[in-house]
Amino acid sequence: MTDIILALDVSTGKDALSIAKKTAPFIDAIKIGYPLVLAAGLEIANQLSDEGLPLIADFKVADIPNTSRLIAEEVFSHGFSGIICHGFVGRDSVLACVETAHDHGGECYVVTEMSHPGAVDFFHGGIAERIAGLVCETNADGIIAPATRPERTSLLRTLIGTKKILSPGVGAQGGDPAAIASIVDGIIVGRAIYEAKDPGSAAEEYSRFRT
Ligand code: O7E
């Protein structure tokens, strides 16, 4: 199955709610993070939950285990069903997010390699592969891997087996959904939907890649 996940990085609660309503029939989950939460407050999660879609908290948690656990507790007490953390912080910090997610019946995804051009400065040379190993060891639910580098995401797939891959970078960052859809479990799309003249139609277009 390939889901469409809307990255709702708008800067007002009003825009967020309006775009969520228009796109809801064509998407499978909503991801929100710092842009929207810093602008509208974490309560926006409760309002968005009216659409009945899973909500993923993208705070890319990267802290010591205790702080990561506190952040994850806050996230799950606000109705999110998933959390995203960084992997480079190490096993104990990733485990804190995974365990807190699972205690709440939620999921934890670990950033394994990012989609922007500068990601190769750090994640290449074996780091992404090591993080993929950590994902398996910590029983995390899946990884974040780039739609902008399908060959890398395919390689990471061989390391994580059937765990889920959520993949950002299509549309505005140049990734081609047709090249990535069959490799991953979810395509994350932001600007190509929320900046479109008609976000509902844009989301409907991407929904062609749903399986
Ligand atoms: O480029 P857009 O507008 O389609 O937005 C992409 C979204 O995915 C945006 O929220 C960005 O922060 C996020 N993202 C990446 O673009 N690249 C990454 O490598 C990782 C993420 C991300 O969401 O990480 C956690 C899922």
Give an overview in words.
The protein has 211 residues and is α/β, with parallel strands linked by helices. It is built from eleven helices and eight strands. The chain has helices at 13-23, 34-40, 44-48, 65-77, 91-103, 120-123, 127-137, 150-160, 177-180, 191-194, 199-206; strands at residues 3-7, 29-33, 55-61, 82-86, 107-111, 142-144, 164-168, 186-189. The chain has an eight-stranded parallel β-barrel, surrounded by five helices. Helix 5 links the parallel strand 4 (82-86) and strand 5. Helix 4 (65-77) packs parallel to helix 5 (91-103). The longest helix is centred in the middle third of the chain and has 13 residues, at 65-77. The N and C termini lie close together (5 Å). The structure holds 6-(ethoxycarbonyl)uridine 5'-(dihydrogen phosphate) (O7E). The site of 6-(ethoxycarbonyl)uridine 5'-(dihydrogen phosphate) has 22 residues, from strand 3, strand 7, strand 8 and helix 10.
